Amino acid sequence: MSPQILEVIGPLFAIIGVGTLILIGVRMRYKYKIDSMQRPKSGQTERLTEAVDGLYEQSQLLRDEVNELQERLDFHERLLTRAKKEQADTPA
Fold first, then answer.
1. Domain boundary assignment for the chain
2. What is the pLDDT along the chain (92 residues), one digit of tens a residue?
3. Whether pTM exceeds 0.90
4. Are 82 and 75 in contact (CB under 8 A)?
5. What's the rounded Cα separation, in Å, for the pair 29 and 43?
């Protein structure tokens, strides 16, 4: 190889190598930024966990209340049914 070709190829390879390293660094930086934006912060995670726990407790209370109301409704339906049967059984 002639020295003139090496004078052109050497800097060309250096520029390509440095450019590649810069592009890899930029890509890694943006990937890190995107990952950190998608990941919730530790304080947010704790607040979300507390909110979910609170909602779960509220839903359990509502279920208990609905079950109690259902039992009361069943009781009153039985009372009304019994009263209607007693009226039907009573001779007029």
1. 1-41, 49-92
2. 677 777 788 888 888 888 899 999 999 998 988 887 777 667 778 888 899 999 999 999 999 999 999 999 999 999 999 988 888 887 75
3. no
4. no
5. 24
